Amino acid sequence: MTQQLDLLVEDLLGAPDLGARLGLLRAAGTVDREGLLWLEDEVEARIHTAPARARTLAELCVRAAEELGLPRSAARAEYLLARVVAEAGDLEGALGLIASARERYRSVGDEVLALRTDLGRMQVLDDLGDHRGAVEVGNRVLRTLPQAGGDRVAAAAVEAAVMCNLGVAHSFLGDHETSLGLYARAETAYAGLHQPVQVAQQRANQGIELLALGQAREARARLCSARAEFARAGDHLWTAKCAAHLADAHQHLGELVDALALLDEAGSELEDLGATAELLRVHVQRARTYLSAGLFDESAAEADRAIAEAQELSMGHDEGFARLTKAAAQLSAGLLVEAGVELDAAIDIFDRVGDRQFRASADLLRAELADRLGDDDARHEALSRALGALEAGGWLIPLGWALLKHVDLSEDAGERSRALDRADEIVATVGVPALRHGLAVRRARLSAERGAHHETVRLLGDAVADVQRSGSGLPDPILRLAFRTSHMAAFDDLVDALVRRGTDGDPARALRYSDDAKARTLLDLITGTIGSRGGDGAVERDGDDRLGRSMADLRSTYAVLGDSAGEDGLADHLARAERLETEVSSLRVRAASSFRVPGPRRAHHDDPAPDEGPPSISYHCHGQDVIAFVSRGSGVVTERLVGVLPRVRHLIDDLESQWARFQLGSGFVDHHHDALLLTCRAVLGDLHDLVWAPLRTHLADLATAELVVVPHGPLHRVPFHALFDGTAHLVDGWILSVAPTTPRAAVAGPAPVPARDVRVLAVPDVRSPLIADEARAIGELFPNAAVHIGRGTSLGVLRGLGEQAIVHVACQGMFRPDNPLFSAIRMGDHWVTGVDVLEADLRGALVTLSACESGRPGAGAAEPVGLAWSFLAAGAAGVVVSQWLVDDATTLELMVEMYRHIADGEPTPSALAAAQRLVASHHPHPYHWAAFSYVSAPPVRTLEVLP
């Protein structure tokens, strides 16, 4: 019989319309009270597992019950249909169906079941943001239920469900303690009714409340238990909902990879179920997780998606959550005006729905925005309001952040100390790593103000260790970079604290931490801790998967940008490129969450003395100061260049204005050449006096002219070899190379001989017609050179290279300042991004990127991310790159001269310096000869594998 009924259901679902389905029911003899009861049970069983099928069957039940004159059956069917419709996001439609079902029950005198329909009404009101309305409905049911009479078991079930729904409504209103009590009562009631799935729902709800109260570990335990029960019961909807909330718990605990994996799992399940409302909440949670990881663009994009869906579904409260998350992402990215607009919209929503907790969180963000805008009165008012509301509500996690913000903004040391003590209590309760990290950094700053250097170093050392532990588990370089960048304050403060303390070994230890801050992700890529290399990488993988399609769209957009000769439509194409870059980044991170990185690694700071290496100057920016480390053999000395950074930034901007003038045409440049040269040398002279001259005493007696420079922050934009001392540029007396970290071994790079592999890839175009001549001239210097010109060039040509090969790439370049990993070079018929390069295998190669701006890193990242960084991550021993738009003719001359020296066995840094001196002899303006620098790979011995 069961098999026959199952076949009937399949026939009903396959019928073309409602009339045909009714005919099948009549033919099967099931158009009666018992038949409809069976069919309604089938609907209820499918609401969470197959909602589309449940809707079809529910509509059939309503029609059949009406034809048979069975109002009780029609009422049940209509209420079931309302549940399905609500899950699909049609909330107003669901309210209408619920009201109709309630009247049908009352028409047959069943007040208990009529009251039960108010459960659905409460849920829909919550989804619409009318939480006070939901509370009123629930309380009215509890008052009315004792007088309703009828089945006592049914009444008990309704009472338990009302307590559950009241818990949800109070949760939305920020009253989490009340919610916990209601869920506990509901759990007891359901246990007495022997309903294990309902018991699991209350356990899951308690987990959600514990999360809101900052008790993430306890919440995770409740949610895991509930999820297991739902999975056993086959309730796919609640299994997925638990996964989404578990992701929230993992995010609070700093377990970002686990959070992203669970969100993908929940999202796929909810999408299959058609549970639009819950899927919207997954998007909000993913946006929050990206925000925690420091992926601000990705967070804002995911929040935008959630906002659009919330508006379509009229889910105002969820729209408020999404807007608050987007505002936080924009504020973190420095988009102050945009953040203010989103914040105003979120505050309006929270005021309208009466959510005190998230209104207070919005006030906290408003205080941060006011601080950035310099509005002291607005900052004080918003922060005071947030602190009062959060303390009164007992919402510990946002309260902890509010206290830390109070520490940042208060000028009273005692007040700051009291706020830190209260924050300490909260951290001990909630155990949130990000909050613990923020507390440690602020305690350290207070200690530094008191001159307690040992305590400062200890606190910051613990904070850095937290970052290292959390960061080492993130498998994707984009995710790891973003996370580390958002936690760089601890590294910067620790470098500063060690230099200020100045005990034996402190300068060398500070230098090690500085190195780690500048190149940890790069080192992890080079050593294979994260990423992949040598396989069929992203540059060759354009299949039907979403990532492949997005990459193909991005390359097409780059092609349009690269070929654009004017401004027409340029802004639209740039916006499309930015959107696709964010999408690709997000998809890579989500794909990476499905695996774990092998063995965690760390920098071994326990050995403070650097190994023998060439002399170097390593800079570290902190506040307005620049700390310079001069390494000579095994010794390290420091100089603090006090207050120079604002002036350095201004001079760098002046210098880049100089380079831009050369784009005005040869007529302008020839006419103003002498004035341009004089102005440029004045700027380079000022930079020399600020960042180089104070170090000369430490360099006076060096036995070599070779020196490695390790820039930091804005200093990556300084052409050190062009700095001018009043009579000569540094290149006239020094052989300079650049490195991501302090060298601890020879860094001159390969000195090739003709037997080694030499590959020359060139893509000429109308703006750079001499590229082909450059490629042929370089090829003639090496008898074994393979020269590829035009459409045949690709990264695939580089496969199978022997170590210490030479790779010369001459083509058009595109610098993406906001998304530096997507800076690109044109190879063949497509653009190759820095993300693509990460998948290549260039171990030991010398790579030259003879392309405009190929060496520019993005601003704001912890590491100098860009094309040079990507090629080093792919294993190159060194990269010759440019900092600005270069001249075609002088680049040809410089490159050929450099390779002439390399072919004679000269190391790359000295070969490049010789070529620059030659070009400068008849083109003295640094624009012509100073754009290129040699960047060497970092030494991998700064890593230690832990057992």
TrEMBL record:
Residues 682-933 form the CHAT domain. Residues 595-615 are annotated as: Disordered. InterPro entries: CHAT_dom, TPR-like_helical_dom_sf. Pfam families: CHAT. Gene3D superfamilies: Tetratricopeptide repeat domain (1.25.40.10). This is CHAT domain-containing protein. The lineage of its organism: Bacteria, Bacillati, Actinomycetota, Actinomycetes, Propionibacteriales.
